[in-house]
């Protein structure tokens, strides 16, 4: 089974590289956040592909900032064309780590995402300003891991309110049931690099975000001297699901404007 899995992974990377080579547009690499998976980009991917962009949504391991960043960096190294790297939520921590020193990453797009300074953790940034409903009261009983640390899940009965209040109830319930856990290590681990200091960045978030306070996101965008900032009225933390057109547009803006 392992050779089959390895073969499929290599085939997927080869396809992404081939698609990139056949396009004069940069490859869009999408990195999901905590309590989600790559399917959270399902509304955005068809728009980008229709407009001619090669797109890959990476499976973020959600284990630790360094390990996740190293994994995504390894994936980036299989793509030989310019890249626009996009991160949602905790995925912003990961792209800030993964893109550091990667010459073919031309733009960073933070989708309701953390853009940390070196030494800052997701947990610290999330509590820097009031308003986050995603916290101890909304997390389920931690799941201890044999290697140390715990896996964290959002309580299913709190998921809609704390994570995705602008989604239909049925969609939020499905997302809650299929969520992927993140370790408490990942939430508490400080970033060691800040790729947004050397790579142009764009930000999009909703003013109804109950997971990462909008004030925190405005603070990070201003600190990064973002090239573009879009605040989607009424949008929640899952703005890429509820407003895929707006998210696709800012990604394409970044792709067009990036050097």
TrEMBL record:
Keywords: Hydrolase, Signal. It comes from the Bacteria. GO terms for molecular function: hydrolase activity. SUPFAM superfamilies: alpha/beta-Hydrolases. InterPro entries: AB_hydrolase_1 (IPR000073), AB_hydrolase_fold (IPR029058), Sec-Metab_Biosynth_Hydrolase (IPR052897). Residues 28-249 form the AB hydrolase-1 domain. Residues 1-21 form the signal peptide. Pfam families: Abhydrolase_6 (PF12697). This is Alpha/beta hydrolase.
């Amino acid at each position: 089974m392992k050779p089959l899995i390895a073969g499929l992974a290599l085939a997927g990377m080869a396809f992404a590289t081939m698609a990139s080579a056949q396009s004069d547009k940069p490859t869009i690499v999408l990195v999901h956040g905590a309590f989600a998976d790559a399917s959270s980009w399902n509304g955005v991917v068809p728009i980008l592909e229709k407009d001619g962009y090669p797109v890959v949504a990476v499976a973020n391991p959600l284990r630790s900032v360094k390990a996740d960043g190293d994994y995504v960096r390894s994936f980036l190294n299989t793509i030989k064309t310019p890249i626009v790297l996009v991160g949602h939520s905790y995925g912003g921590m990961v792209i800030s780590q993964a893109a550091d020193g990667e010459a073919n990453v031309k733009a960073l797009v933070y989708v309701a995402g953390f853009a940390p300074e070196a030494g800052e953790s997701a947990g610290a940034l999330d509590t820097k300003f009031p308003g986050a409903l995603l916290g101890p009261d909304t997390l389920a009983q931690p799941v201890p891991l044999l290697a140390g640390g715990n896996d964290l899940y959002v309580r299913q009965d709190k998921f809609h309110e704390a994570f995705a209040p602008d989604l239909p109830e049925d969609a939020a319930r499905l997302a809650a049931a299929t969520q992927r856990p993140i370790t408490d290590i990942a939430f508490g681990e400080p970033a060691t690099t800040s790729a947004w200091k050397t790579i142009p960045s764009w930000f999009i978030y909703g003013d109804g975000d109950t997971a990462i306070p909008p004030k925190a996101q405005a603070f990070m965008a201003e600190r990064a001297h973002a090239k573009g900032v879009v605040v989607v009225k009424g949008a929640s933390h899952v703005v890429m699901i509820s407003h895929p057109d707006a998210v696709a547009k800012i990604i394409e803006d970044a792709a067009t404007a990036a050097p």
